[in-house]
């Protein structure tokens, strides 16, 4: 049984809430290799692969032989595009590459549960009931985080849906990330020291990822 501290939107402690064990209390010892695999694949998928070198066929220049093959005393030369000449083509040119590898949904969800379990057992998950601002206010967001998390560190704020005023309130804060409950992934949880969830987001996480 893993519990998390529960606060209201003013940062006042309301007590503790039990986190669903299907998401926040899984075995974290055996799936370490799985977690590493999923994170590595995710980071690899962020690579653009937009790299290009010109081979000799792509290089501008005449294809006429520079001088006759024999009798000049010079080394044999072909066209101006040859890789041995300045401004010539690349001998083994590299081309754009697609680094994307599909991550199986089962692995992706299991890795997320392992990451959330690690944060939950360390007491780094906070639940804020009624986490919603009528108007965007960075000041209120900063005051709330300062009351429930006085320590420094990267924070991930999880909301149920994309409520624009609430998201805008946290966007301008340094070291604060925001995401929807149904869009969580392991890497953003791992690189965040603290997870702040709304009460509705916690229910959404359980609904989406518990199976």
Write up what this structure looks like.
The longest helix is centred in the middle third of the chain and has 17 residues, at 105-121. Helix 2 packs across helix 3 (105-121) and helix 4 crosses helix 5 (164-171). The protein has helices at 21-24, 32-45, 105-121, 138-148, 164-171, 186-190, 199-209; strands at residues 3-8, 13-18, 125-129, 155-159, 176-180, 194-198. It is an alpha/beta fold and 211 residues long. It starts with a strand and ends with a helix. Strand 4, helix 5 and strand 5 form a beta-alpha-beta unit.
Our measurement of the CA-to-CA distance between the termini, rounded to an integer number of angstroms, reads: 18 Å
Name the CATH architecture of the largest domain. 3-Layer(aba) Sandwich
Mean of the pLDDT scores?
92
CATH topology value of the largest domain: Ribosomal Protein L4, Chain: A
The count of domains is 2
- Count all strands and give the number: 6
Count of helical stretches: 7
SSE topology string: EEHHHEHEHEHEH
Low-confidence stretches: none
Largest sheet: 6 strands, mixed
| Text of the CATH class of the largest domain | Alpha Beta
- CATH superfamily name of the largest domain? Ribosomal protein L4/L1
Q: Note the overall shape.
A: elongated
Record keyword descriptors for this entry:
6 strands; alpha/beta; 7 helices; Ribosomal Protein L4, Chain: A; 2 domains; 15% strand; six-stranded mixed beta sheet
Summarize the structure.
The protein contains 7 helices and 6 strands; from the N terminus they run ββαααβαβαβαβα.
